Amino acid sequence: MQRQRLRFLKNLRKLKFDNYMKAIFTTFNEAHYDAILAILEKTNIKGFTNWEQVRGRGSINGEPHYGSHAWPTMNSSILIFAPDADVADLRKRLLDLDSQFPALGLRVFTWTVDE
């Protein structure tokens, strides 16, 4: 029993340090919302938080998304937490979506998180 417990603790420590998580922040035209949820379903990523009615302007060729009379569209943002191994595929799928509709705008940012 003691040997099994030690093996379990050793494996637990290895999991903690070897399986890093990433935070993926994506901000996008609200028209992309359903497509992004479908991508999360396809990649089996469950942990995220969504913010609706986000105002902003893209840094490259982006038009303002202010929800005003002059600039009526709005953005949404999602903060996703996923295992490091899943991030490349998710990022590729999100950027593929952006390339299909470049005028709408979609940005993806990632960083490593520890807890």
The major beta sheet can be summarized as: 4 strands, antiparallel
Tally the helices: what do you get? 3
Query: What is the end-to-end distance?
Result: 30 Å
Subunit organisation of the chains? single chain
Shape: elongated
- What class, by secondary structure content? alpha+beta
Classified by CATH, the class is: Alpha Beta
- From the coordinates shown, what is the CATH architecture? 2-Layer Sandwich
- What's the count of strands? 6
Order of helices and strands: HEHEEEEHE
Can you give the mean pLDDT? Answer: 85
β-strand percent reads 25-35%
In the sheet with the most strands, the strands line up as 2-5-1-6
CATH fold type? Alpha-Beta Plaits
Low-pLDDT stretches are none
Radius of gyration: 18 Å
Helix content: 25-40%
Kindly give the count of domains: 1
